[in-house]
Amino acid sequence: MQIATIQSITPTGEPPYMNPAHPEYGPLYPFRVVFTSGFTGIVNAKSAVGPSYRAGSQVGYEITGQHPSGMAKIKVDSKAGQFGAPAVQPAVPQPPPAPAPALPAGTALPPPPQAIGMVVKAAVDIIIHNAKTEPQPVDLPTLRFKVVQIGRELLAAGDDLSKPEKEDVPY
């Protein structure tokens, strides 16, 4: 939970709504809260006049989600900022990180996880396509072998797969 000082609280202009998960709370009124740090978020209040905390109050807050307007939904704890709780201090500027050491010539980086997932999906798609055209069912070890084999071929091809030609389809 972060501690900050409220700069302003204003109604969003949206109508109140009932939380279907907790109808016992009654209607909730959305308000925009701006902190002195520049952070802005949406809070809900049970009262149409606003929450109990006001501009200038030091409070604790945490982000709980995203409002449909795109702003952060926040939960404010008005007691967290009392009793001399330390305010969040701005970070001390750090020097930029040192550049990564260069790889030796001929060394390849492993593919990112997203690429591996895409390769596995492409390999499975090819195998499913081929299985539909084959009259005999294929056993599981053979399917695993084909997925690994086609996946290796796809990874080895790398950027050559960016623009496939119809006559280049090997399967």
Secondary-structure blueprint:
Elements: E1 2-11, E2 17-18, E3 27-35, E4 40-45, E5 58-66, E6 72-77, H1 113-133, H2 140-157
Parallel strand pairs: 4-6
Antiparallel strand pairs: 1-3, 1-5, 2-3, 3-4, 5-6
Helix pairs in contact: 1-2
Mean pLDDT, as a whole number?
A: 77
Report the uncertain regions: none
Query: What structural class is derived from the secondary structure elements?
Result: alpha+beta
State which percent range the strand residues make up: 15-25%
DSSP summary, beta strand count: 6
CATH architecture classification of the largest domain: Beta Barrel
SSE arrangement, N to C:
EEEEEEHH
- CATH fold node name of the largest domain: OB fold (Dihydrolipoamide Acetyltransferase, E2P)
Task: Give a structural overview.
The protein is α+β, with helices and mostly antiparallel strands and 171 residues long. It has 2 domains: 2-77, OB fold (Dihydrolipoamide Acetyltransferase, E2P), CATH 2.40.50; 113-163, no CATH class. The chain is 23% helix and 25% strand. It contains 2 helices and 6 strands, in the order ββββββαα. The chain has helices at 113-133, 140-157; strands spanning 2-11, 17-18, 27-35, 40-45, 58-66, 72-77. A 5-stranded mixed beta barrel has the order 1-3-4-6-5. The model has no long low-confidence stretch (mean pLDDT 77).
